[in-house]
Design brief:
- The chain is α+β, with helices and mostly antiparallel strands.
- It has eight helices and 16 strands.
- The strands form four sheets. It has a six-stranded mixed beta sheet with strand order 12-11-8-9-10-15, sandwiched between helices. Strands 2-6-7-1-16 form a five-stranded antiparallel beta sheet.
- Helix 1 crosses helix 3, helix 2 runs antiparallel to helix 3 and helix 5 crosses helix 7.
- It is globular.
Length: 425
């Protein structure tokens, strides 16, 4: 498994020069690709472009120059794929020239010295980039790009999944917008991750974006006040995005720690691929659902569970919240509670979905007598975010919720989890 570590580098003349060289190469590739297409009706392949324009490019390592061409043709391929699928709205190919661009190094240009300094080669005759690397693992791929304030180092390195799961229990995970995740464990225990904090940050993001855009539109473009407001908008929105990522990291780490303590060996997550294409609930609800960070949440949950030795699998989520886990009668509930009219089964709707997701992947695997599906399903315990939540296991037990306030109570361990150079996914 590969993880990414990020480090802030500030701004130096050497990094500015490298970014300008990469931007110049991107602009050259863009210009000549479309010139060939427009004048001769011929599209250059990636191999031809690398041979004609990347080979011997001054100021960059040969692999760094090839990586710029990889980025351009990846963007071009993504554009062609979307056009093939009929997605034309607001879609444009990579055509703009760039003054600066990110610089990438592959394994052949990366060396970790004995003194803990990471050496990034820039080709013969050019000074290498030297960075103090706070790890004993040599990265396999390195990228340096501008994050809005300064240059940022992003290193991918291999991490062995050396932990063993404490048990062999299976758990189903139902992803949602209100409750980010609702988990059903084989023994009948249910866990809910409340998403109120994330929804609040999204609302704050939307309000601030709308307010600042309206102020910017009333100023003359390029004026001093226009530039000041544009910088304020970028700064404020970046702060909220960082808070959202901090929230997702902390709640996913806490959830995985709880599952590990509950001796879970296999986690089955509901597959939500393509769900945004089917959403048509009105402007406000569509905005909420299109800003739903389920993909990032699922990615973080997956790699953190795998680091603890758990196996993560996918299962279809179709009709899982509408199917009774006792008699399999399909019934669409109006509120958060599921009440089956066929067998009088009662339970939280998201817990029913998590139970059916597990059953979709492992039907009939649960030991007899270990579940409360027969009559009434237990209310979920809650895992909720707090600004100073620790991400390490604490051994504390989540509190029990009642059905009316499911997911609103939680443990509140203290301590800080954000550290410089912390591996992130």
């Amino acid at each position: 498994m590969y993880l990414t570590r990020k480090l802030k580098l500030g701004q130096t003349d050497q990094l500015d020069r490298l970014a300008r060289q990469a931007g110049e190469l991107w602009s050259t590739l863009t210009k000549w690709h479309w010139r060939f297409a427009r004048r001769q009706g011929y599209w250059l392949s990636k191999g031809q472009a690398q041979k004609m324009y990347c080979k011997g490019f001054d100021g960059l390592h040969s692999q760094s120059a090839q990586a710029v061409a990889d980025s351009f043709y990846d963007s071009l391929q993504s554009w062609r794929k979307k056009r093939k699928n009929g997605d034309y709205e607001g879609l444009r190919p990579p055509y703009k020239q760039k003054r600066y661009f990110k610089v990438q190094w592959k394994s052949g240009a990366i060396k970790l010295r004995d003194d803990g300094v990471l050496r990034l080669s820039n080709g013969r005759g050019n000074n290498p980039v030297l960075i103090d690397w706070p790890s004993e693992k040599e990265p396999k791929r390195v990228e340096i790009g501008w994050d809005g304030d300064q240059y940022e180092l992003r290193c991918q390195y291999n991490v062995e999944e050396d932990q063993e799961p404490k048990g062999t229990k299976k758990a189903g995970v139902d992803l949602g917008e209100r409750h980010l995740a609702t988990v059903y464990v084989e023994n009948g225990e249910n866990i809910s991750v409340h998403g109120g904090r994330l929804r609040s940050l999204r609302r704050q993001h939307n309000r601030m974006l709308s307010t600042l855009r309206s102020k910017i539109d009333r100023k003359e473009k390029g004026s001093r006040r226009w530039k000041r407001l544009a910088r304020a908008k970028d700064r404020q929105l970046r702060k909220i995005r960082n808070q959202i990522e901090d929230f997702l990291h902390k709640v996913t780490t806490r959830l995985v720690n709880v599952l590990h303590e509950r001796r879970t060996g296999t986690v089955v997550v509901g597959d939500l691929t393509g769900i945004r294409e089917r959403i048509k609930y009105g402007d406000r609800m569509n905005q909420r659902l299109h800003q739903w960070a389920y993909s990032k949440f699922e990615h973080m949950l997956t790699y953190k569970a795998q680091l603890r030795g758990m196996t993560v699998e996918r299962a279809s989520e179709a009709y899982t919240s509408q199917t009774c886990p006792s008699c399999e009668h399909r019934h669409k509930s109006n509120g958060r509670d599921f009440n089956c009219p066929q067998c009088s089964f009662e339970g939280h709707r998201d817990v029913v979905g998590a139970r059916n997701i597990l059953n979709e992947r492992y039907p009939g695997d649960e030991p007899t007598g270990s579940t409360q599906v027969a009559g009434e399903m237990a209310s979920p315990t809650g895992v909720r975010y707090r600004p100073h939540m620790r991400t390490e296991p604490t051994g504390s037990e989540p509190q029990r919720c009642n059905p009316a306030t499911a997911g609103k109570t939680c443990t509140e361990p203290r301590g800080s989890s954000r550290q410089a150079g912390r591996p992130v996914g």
